[in-house]
Amino acid sequence: MGFVAWVIFGAIVGWIANLVVGGRARQRLGCLVSVLVGIVGAALGGLLYRLATGQARTFDFDFPSFGVAILGAVVLLAILRLAGGLTRHPSDRS
Length: 94
Fold this sequence. Notes:
Elements: H1 3-21, H2 31-53, H3 63-87
């Protein structure tokens, strides 16, 4: 995929992952953060796919790649939100 395709793919994946992980205290991510979460999540999803199946996954604009990327982005956001929740002081939560 070209650079622009990665940005578009990352933005869509990051936005969907934010909706999935959301919950009541959903944080709105900026566009740049959504793109980064989507791209890093796609790489993480590819790594998880390879570990689970032993097969490499090439990323094209298709539904299986999209699903793997969303799974990776959801895992990434869940880890980041868990780590962010652990570092906050209980009195800081609203």
